[in-house]
Specification:
Elements (H helix, E strand, L loop, with lengths): L1 H27 L15 E5 L6 E5 L12 H4 L27 H6 L3 E2 L11 E2 L7 E3 L3 E2 L4 E7 L11 E10 L2 E7 L27 E6 L4 E6 L7
Antiparallel strand pairs: 1-2, 3-4, 5-7, 6-7, 7-8, 8-9, 10-11
Pfam families: Trefoil (PF00088)
GO cellular component, one term: extracellular space
InterPro entries: P_trefoil_chordata, P_trefoil_dom, P_trefoil_dom_sf
Amino acid sequence: MGVLSNLTVTVLLISLSLLVASLHLLFRNEGRLVRSVHYDPNEVTAHKKPGSSSYYYYYYYPGVPKSDGPPESLQRSGTSWQTGCSVAPQSRFDCGRDRLLSQEECEERECCYAPLPGSAGPPWCFYPAPYPGYTMGRLTPSERGQTATLTRASPSYLPKDVSTLSLEAMDETPGCFHLVLKDPSSERYKVPLPAGRPQTEAFQDQDALYTTQYQHHPFGFVVRRKSSGRVL
């Protein structure tokens, strides 16, 4: 009986020691547990995957440093992650117009890299939004149409920026719209085309087969067929 009692006491002491050690480890690592339920919703961060309508989520728990980027799984997918890369494919502005760029070369230009299925279509390497474009001034009447000045407030990603551009829009005929964008500070070759009619001799607006619409910032314009509204 004495041997059995000593064995029982020894087993109880070992069990108690293991329980104390387990509780110590549990409390020490409590902040590092990845919990599947009862997490704090204020600690959930959702990010939109560039060029996609889907979201991925990553969580922050006490004791685990916050990450400024996406999970390692997204880093391995060959997709850039930086501010401004969530651009719809149809709105991408090609950052590799001079040549085909790898992901490393694309990101060296501080551009976004997000592959798409197929080799044709929207560019994989594109400028982050908002792209620093031009701002269009007020349209004013001219002898042959309308003119406006475009200005750039911040530099682009390409060298030899032109800070000011001149725009001239001319309604040549009911079916012909003539628009010129040029650097007013330098001369360039001009194709010898017949001069348009002066504004005083031009046709009335209601005779035109097209409509024009301008966006002032960032600058852009759209020419549509009046009968169908189709963009030309």
